[in-house]
Model the fold of this input.
Amino acid sequence: MSTSPIAGHAGAAELRRSAQDHLWLHFSQMSDFDERPLPVIVSGDGCHLTDVDGKRYLDGLAGLFAVQIGYGHGAEIGEAAAAQLRELPFYTNWNAAHPRAIELAEEVVSLAPDGFGRVFFTSGGAEAVESAWKLARQYHALNGERRWKAIGRDVAYHGTSMGALSITGLESIRTPFEPLVPQVSHVRNTDRFHRPEGETEEQFTALLLEDMEHRIRSEGPETIAMIILEPVQNSGGAFTPPAGYFAGVRALCDAYGILLCADEVITGFGRLGDWFGSARYDIRPDLITSAKGLSSAYASIGALLVSDRVAEPFYGHDEMFKHGITFGGHPVQAAIALKNIEIMKRLDVVGHVAREEDAFRRTLEPLLDIPIVGDLRGAGFFYALELVKDQDTKQGFTAAEAKDLLQNFLSDRFFDAGLICRADGRGEPVIQVSPPLVADQAIFDEMTGILGDVLSEAAARVR
Ligand code: PLP
Done:
């Protein structure tokens, strides 16, 4: 029986028609929905969503790696937003401030790794990345150096605005927009699955650091403003760092005077079982970008966290960060983020992830028995399954086969089976799972059950 408030009425068809006519979807092939119905999500509770036809889904992707507290806190967060709207619907943080931005900055600083005293708010993740790169450039200028380049990693995603896209290491989404902001280069990511059998973790770390140092030297260290890395790289499938990697990156940045930015747009606010992935992996960055989980995506707000050392020259006489965004730290968005953090603390969401991450992994592990599942990797509530043609040799699918498997089969089948997860082919084909951080064993079981059924079907289809 339908549970949707408008299911069974002309509403569903009308909404879909209107969407087809007017709503331009992000990263979506619009013609897909000539053949199959566009999912129109109308409500959510806990880790589940309901579409306009009344069909329920388990959201194994937490929106887009974002809805930490799940979908059931709209009323409480709505109260906070309404109170703020009554008090002060808008003011900027340009040459002025308002209480919610001040309180949120203080709260974020209290959760951040040691040495981070300042927060610059943005409207989302890409703006935080843009802000980080600009701040890094201006920081060096204030110190009398002209450094402008950035180094990112292969296959990493950092957003779609021109600066963030330039840092993104995904050819397929870069090419149509070239020329991009010049002089970003990409170094090896921490994909261990495709490394030779028998290579130790230490050898792998050494290889990655050699590659990075080689790139720094060939670019000219005195030209490089910033290296930007996610604690666990999402695109390509939850690449975790090998032992010693981040200590080595930090040492390279120190040796060559380069700022280190941890892009925590996904990993920040609990996804890895710590408020920040930088704390979990002891990254000691100079800058941290964050967004999504800061408000559990109940608001469009992001933040750039700046270490005291990097902030210092901006606080001298006659200096300012020459950068601003109308909506950065918007009072309603800030009120929502504050309430989200309050709820996360009340529910001990971050502690829950730390306590349950082993159970989550253990629940997913049997999926490795399915013939096309080659690897399971990740940390916290942030995992990926890499799909292969041959488990023994790790032989992958050709690009055409992967596209067919992901786009023509898996994406639809997961959706039909009531699981939202991501069948991603931007690197090797992976299934990304990243549930709300309030997920418990029942959710892990439900998710793994559907993953198992659909991936087994896919394996049979491949055979
Ligand atoms: N950085 C990372 C690591 C991301 O995953 C994303 C988005 O998924 C971004 C930056 C860009 O964030 P937004 O989509 O809010 O601009």
